Amino acid sequence: MARRPTRELILSTALALFNEEGLAEVGSVDIASVMGISPGNLHYHFKGKVLIIEELYARFESEMRMVLDAPVNNPLQLEDNWVYLYIIFEEIYDFRFFYRNLGWVFEKIPELAPQFARLLRAKEGAFDSLVSTLRGEGFIDLSDSEADALVQRLTMHYTFWLPHSDLRFPDMASKALINRGVYAALIQVIPYWSENKDGAQRLLSEFFEAQA
Amino acid sequence: MARRPTRELILSTALALFNEEGLAEVGSVDIASVMGISPGNLHYHFKGKVLIIEELYARFESEMRMVLDAPVNNPLQLEDNWVYLYIIFEEIYDFRFFYRNLGWVFEKIPELAPQFARLLRAKEGAFDSLVSTLRGEGFIDLSDSEADALVQRLTMHYTFWLPHSDLRFPDMASKALINRGVYAALIQVIPYWSENKDGAQRLLSEFFEAQA
């Protein structure tokens, strides 16, 4: 017998199915069927798929906010930046169905659009802290406009890397997808590096070749 | 009496409505109603909304390909680059409903996904030509990995700028949206500029402040 409450099992099953099959393709009945429970039992816990999605979104947002707020509250050490960039991507990847189905979500659950927009601004806040810290400590050298544009670009990158990759690299495995996404985020910082740009570029390339 | 054939009027009305109201919200009956023709008359020309969307996509792709192939066939002069970056955005903006409803489109018309992916690679080819020409003529100085990443980034930027802006700048007027999109594309090239980066940055900022 499962020890986890049914409600939690419904959420984790729905998350796995939404991520694998896509939001439009999976209904409440499919979730109940995979779990081996009756649609009535599922309905007792969640009166419809929309309520399941809303609960998953609430959990995603609260996990993401914890991650995003970290460098705003405590500036990162230089060497922690790349780990941090991984962690955000992994969090997004865990709930990738949102990023791959934004249009569907906003059409069916319009109230999630402003919430997602607020989360986007929290991402922007986190990247702003990262860039400000690197600038303040003299690691990178760039104008205010360039710093703003870099922060915007990183925010957009983290939001649309998955739908972009679905089109551009449809067969890429998940780990490579995340590696490549982090690499694409980091390589834009290289030209602003104050000292030894070539060394930084070489380190970055070697690191990611080792991961691939 | 309208002189343009009904078929063309259906397409231009559908394009305007899809752009204004969104793909999910507009049906064949709405298009017929705005045109003041009967649903039966519309059905005679297009047997369903999907066929209208497919025809609009075919026209969009053929227009975009003409634009995108231009610098591949004939390298641009330096001063033509920003006009070119505008033209691509304007083309995308004319058919913005595709970019704002990619998920909906691919769910309802799966065969458009590989076509859109091919168009994405054509965008990549155009940006690759731009960057290669600037490198070859010594205007910019960057490593092969940085050039690849810049090309990828521009491609992604042009594909996801509209859905990103819908979330981040929901009230921005269309002209400002395009200006800002071109600015965000160009400012990433500044740090690779071989000579007088500050001058290039100043020109870019002044130009876009004048437009705003």
Describe this structure in words.
Chain A has helices at residues 6-21, 28-35, 39-45, 49-73, 81-94, 96-100, 102-108, 112-136, 144-168, 174-187, 197-211. Chain A folds into 2 domains: 1-47, Homeodomain-like (Arc Repressor Mutant, subunit A); 59-211, Tetracycline Repressor, domain 2 (Orthogonal Bundle), CATH 1.10.357. With 212 residues, the first copy, chain A, is mainly α. In chain A, 76% of the residues lie in helices and 0% in strands. The interface between A and B is large, with 42 and 42 residues.
Describe the structure concisely.
Chain A has 212 residues and is mostly helical. Chain A has helices at residues 6-21, 28-35, 39-45, 49-73, 81-94, 96-100, 102-108, 112-136, 144-168, 174-187, 197-211.
Percent in helix of chain A: over 70%
Number of helices of chain A: 11
Please provide the ordered H/E string of secondary-structure elements of chain A: HHHHHHHHHHH
Level-2 CATH architecture of the largest domain in chain A: Orthogonal Bundle
**What oligomeric assembly is this protein in?**
homodimer
Quick one: CATH superfamily of the largest domain in chain A?
Tetracycline Repressor, domain 2
Contiguous low-pLDDT stretches of chain A (5 residues minimum) are none
Nearest-angstrom radius of gyration of chain A? Answer: 20 Å
The proportion of strand residues of chain A reads: under 5%
Shape of chain A: elongated
Instruction: Give the class of chain A from helix and strand content and strand pairing.
Output: mainly alpha
What's the average pLDDT of chain A?
A: 91
* Most residues in contact: chain pair: A-B, 42 and 42 residues
Number of domains of chain A: 2
Cα distance spanning the termini of chain A = 40 Å
- Number of extended strands of chain A: 0
Q: Briefly, what CATH class of the largest domain in chain A?
A: Mainly Alpha
Major sheet of chain A: none
The CATH topology of the largest domain in chain A corresponds to Tetracycline Repressor, domain 2
